[in-house]
Design goal:
alpha+beta, Phosphoenolpyruvate Carboxykinase, domain 1, Phosphoenolpyruvate Carboxykinase, domain 2, 3 domains, 9-stranded mixed β-sheet, globular, binds oxalic acid, binds manganese (II) ion
């Protein structure tokens, strides 16, 4: 399929190491993918679902020990430990290559090596990058064929260039004790062993598009961010784009595919999804920041997804989708998960492959769930009813605003605008979310997750903050405005105050108005907060006094927050840019 010497040389090394019985190049044709689907069904690796209700859809179950990303087994392997920084696990590359090669050696014996050439971003786009993943899993091939653009065309674009990312995935024995997800940013290389679960093995996603790409962006002057991208169309038909970063469990996919409230729809507002998880951003010819979604599909969390919470995500999963670790409803050979609807299936198989007893279902006890809480759908982006026309174009969309956010019961107001880019970097670098009852461990614990990149930054986070500051200098007055949102303020009983979901559109509209100089604001020690009357509450049962309460910046709460930020910043030592330390000092002064 290619004459590229760097590719052929690496593949020879991989074949010698892994000793597969057979080697198959993935050419991207439907015929080849269909053969693989049939093979996976014959071996039981996938279950074909109801062709009428869910055409082209399949169910796959992973081993119960292999259901999520494994941050404690994820390594950044750089020559100098300092380059991985205080927030990553580090290992010397030589030592790690040896360990991983020893684990992977000979493990493709009796198996087939699939070679997947893939493009992150529309094939040939100046913002796209190419990778080649070898794997011994058909599930990986079929997921990669949804999540990325695969096949011969990618190699044609690559030509004889050496600018591509090497990716080795070997299932081995799916042994958690020998599971490793390793990035070698200096060599453009990823190695993943002993897992067969999504985020660990679809190497184009977190491993390449965030960890390796963030490093590349640092070296090459662009940005790879854990951000959704959406376009909001106003009644005049103009579309403005925003990129937003949130830690897990803050509703990123929901915001990316939000449906504006009826009142705004009637006026002509519409939301277009460009991406739900990752944004690659470069400065365009006109000096503005342009973003593409490097992915080609959604690898979304299934539980909680329903026609109300996210109609567009659910619609995206109705054809050509692979479901992982959800329940199988035997009555009609479809899938089910907690939160899909209230009709608990009476004749179902749970995510572990056992008969499910609906009568024992207890919301408070996850062990009684039919679907794993981190069960997923891998759905083609083109299925999404609100996919943007720009999605498949390579130029990217101009970003007007960057939005950070997290779950904060009392601290951050519903929305505020940073004072300028540097202050916005400060806001992103101090981002935090409180743990919910949905996650293991104590409730309400604050976890700092700068720019939602904590598990995904492929280099020293101090250097990453500096890179953000440098990008701001290059962008100058063309830089997107930076905001922070918090949909999760609670009352004294712990109930969410703001309705969220589609009504978040009202907040996004204020953000766009601010970008265009159309809305007023009140200056506070943390930044610019809306005047309550500037958030449009039409047709919403929500009074302005309550709105004022969630726009409030409480000085005592923020003084405590500033102390916690100081602690958080200590981790970065000398690598913390002085400008950010100065930001913290001015916040403290302003709070006095
Ligand atoms: C994801 C994540 O799966 O951020 O997208 O964990
Ligand atoms: Mn993510």
């Amino acid at each position: 399929m290619t004459e590229n010497k760097t590719v052929l040389k690496w593949l020879d090394e991989m074949k010698a190491l892994l000793t597969p019985d057979e080697v198959i190049w993935i050419d991207g044709s439907e015929a080849q993918l269909d053969t693989l689907r049939r093979e996976a069904v014959e071996t039981g690796e996938m279950i074909k679902l109801n062709e009428e209700k869910l055409p082209g859809c399949y169910l796959h179950r992973t081993k119960p020990n292999d259901v999520a990303r494994v941050e404690d087994r994820t390594f950044i392997c750089t020559t100098k430990e300092e380059d991985a920084g205080p927030t990553n696990h580090w290992c010397d590359p030589k030592e790690m290559y040896e360990r991983l090669y020893n684990i992977a050696r000979g493990t493709y014996k009796g198996r087939t090596m699939y070679i997947i050439p893939y493009s992150m971003g529309p094939i040939g786009s100046p913002l796209a990058k190419i990778g080649i993943e070898v794997t011994d899993s058909i599930y990986v091939v079929l997921n990669m064929a949804i999540m990325t653009r695969v096949g011969k065309k990618v190699l044609d674009v690559l030509g004889d260039s050496d600018d591509w990312v090497r990716g080795l995935h070997a299932k081995c024995d799916v042994d958690p004790e020998n599971r490793y997800i390793c990035q070698f940013p200096e060599d453009n290389t990823i190695i993943s062993v002993n897992s067969a679960y999504g985020g660990n093995v679809l190497l184009g996603k977190k491993c390449f598009a965030l960890r390796i790409a963030s490093y590349q962006g640092w070296k090459e002057g662009w940005m790879a961010e854990h951000m959704l991208i959406l376009g909001i169309q106003n009644p005049k038909g103009e579309i403005k784009y925003v990129a937003a970063a949130f830690p897990s469990a803050c509703g990123k996919t929901n915001l990316a595919m939000m449906i504006p409230p009826q009142y705004l729809r009637d006026k002509g507002y519409k939301v277009w999804t460009v991406g739900d998880d990752i944004a690659w951003m470069r400065i365009g010819k006109d000096g503005r920041l342009y973003a593409i979604n490097p992915e080609n599909g959604f690898f979304g969390v299934a539980p909680g997804t329903n026609a109300h919470s996210n109609y567009n995500a659910l619609a995206s999963t109705r054809k050509n989708t692979i479901f992982t670790n959800v329940a199988l409803n035997l009555d009609d050979n479809t899938v089910w998960w907690e939160g899909l609807n209230k009709d608990l299936p009476q004749n179902a198989i749970d995510w572990k492959g056992n008969k499910w007893d609906a009568s024992k279902f207890d919301k408070a006890d996850k062990s009684t769930y039919a679907a794993h809480p981190n069960s997923r759908f891998t759905a083609p982006a083109v299925n999404c009813p609100c996919i943007s026309d720009e999605f498949n174009k390579g130029e990217g969309v101009p970003i007007s605003a960057i939005i950070f956010g997290g779950r904060r019961a009392k601290c951050a107001p519903l929305v505020y605008q940073s004072k300028d880019w540097v202050n916005g970097v400060f806001v992103g670098s101090t981002m935090a979310s409180e743990t919910t009852a949905a996650a293991a461990g104590a409730v309400g614990v604050v976890r700092r997750d700068p720019m939602a990149m904590l598990p995904f930054c492929g280099y020293n986070m101090g250097d990453y903050f500096q890179h953000w500051l440098d990008m701001g200098k290059k962008l100058g007055d063309k830089a997107p405005k930076i905001f922070n949102v918090n949909w999760f303020r609670t009352d004294d009983e712990g109930n969410f105050i703001w309705p969220g979901f589609g009504d978040n559109c009202r907040v996004i509209n204020w953000i766009i108005d601010r970008c265009e100089g159309k809305a007023d604001a009140v200056e506070t020690p943390i930044g610019f907060v809306p005047k309550a009357e500037d958030i449009d509450l039409t047709d919403l049962d929500f009074d302005i006094e309550t709105l004022k309460s969630i726009l409030k910046v409480d000085k005592d709460v923020w003084s405590k927050e500033a102390d916690e930020i100081e602690e958080h910043y200590k981790k970065f030592g000398d690598k913390l840019p002085t400008e950010l330390r100065e930001q913290l000092n001015s916040l403290k002064n302003a709070l006095k």
